[in-house]
Design brief:
161 residues, mainly alpha, 85% helix
Length: 161
């Protein structure tokens, strides 16, 4: 029963991470496909540039709706990523009292990374497009695979002992 539950949770988490990866890559790829790399580097908020192109007859400025969708989308993605990291680390640290320390460490690491590595948005786009975009795809695919291998090793070790 525990093994089936573990496989179900792993399958669900894998689907969520893959869905999040495609959402993230789709947003960036859409901006690059519409505006091109050179023009995208000069945009302050590239995803908002796409939303400015959308117009309806009764709504001239669609910016506020686009910004709202982007904010809610980023909150959902960050929350899912935070929960996924917590679930992975929680299995390594069995102490139940450490859960708030894990949440605090994840939050602080995101804040520290944001302030130390991203100097301005243009630097972020230039660095991201050349270095982190391919790395994000590799990491997003490898995390579920590594998690699966570790869980299978753990099940194998539990069966042999």
């Amino acid at each position: 029963k525990g093994v089936e539950k573990s496989k179900s949770i792993f399958f669900t988490n894998t689907l969520i991470v893959l869905f999040m990866t495609f959402m993230f890559l789709g947003t960036v790829t859409g901006v690059l496909a519409i505006f091109g790399e050179e023009f995208s580097k000069n945009l302050v908020y590239p995803a908002q540039g796409i939303i400015r192109l959308v117009s309806f007859g009764f709504i001239e400025r669609f910016d506020i709706f686009g910004i709202t969708v982007m904010v809610f989308g980023s909150i959902i993605r960050a929350s899912i990523l935070h929960i996924s990291i917590y679930q992975g680390v929680r299995n390594i640290l069995p102490n139940e009292r450490a859960k708030w320390l894990i949440h605090l460490a994840i939050g602080l690491s995101v804040i520290i990374y944001s302030f130390t590595n991203i100097h301005n948005h243009h630097h972020y786009i230039g660095t991201y497009l050349t270095k982190y975009y391919p790395l994000t795809a590799v990491i997003s695919i490898s995390i579920p695979v590594i998690t699966w291998v570790l869980s299978e090793c753990k099940l194998f070790l539990n069966k042999t002992y």
